[in-house]
Amino acid sequence: MNKGVLTALLSILLAQGFKIPLHYIKRKEWKPELFFQTGGMPSSHSAGVASLTTFIALKKGVKTIDFALSFIFGLIVMYDAQGIRRQTGELTLKVNSLDELVRKAHEKESVEFEEKKPKRLKEMLGHQPQEVVGGALLGLVMGSLGFLLSKKDRQRKRFFVR
């Protein structure tokens, strides 16, 4: 498998895994389901793109088109993760609060009201800026480790081929 892709995927998985103990430390609440959710600290989006960009920079150099593509797409992903997606998440919080308010208002009325129960909207969609930075830092570390491990693999292969 492509070592850059493997490094990025491992970074994403590691970031998702870190969300569980970090949430526990912050809220004293154990939530393993966070592994499968978006949002939270650290950003797995940022970790994935930063690790791939770091891997490419170390392997091919920063003057290559590979690095340029990864860097620009990485910036777009990180901007989107903390910009548009975060705003969507905040809007969702307001919609869910409004839903609660409407429900309470209807409970106080004497008129029969039959409401279909909509599925509650997911509130954790995007990231705070510090979550994006945390993911990017994790990605830098993972990209560097991925590069160093792939470099050792190449050296080992050369040793055995001779």
From TrEMBL:
InterPro entries: DUF212. The chain crosses the membrane at residues 65-84, 132-150. Keywords: Membrane, Transmembrane, Transmembrane helix. PANTHER family: ACID PHOSPHATASE/VANADIUM-DEPENDENT HALOPEROXIDASE-RELATED PROTEIN, ACID PHOSPHATASE_VANADIUM-DEPENDENT HALOPEROXIDASE-RELATED PROTEIN. This is Divergent PAP2 family protein. It comes from [Bacillus] enclensis.
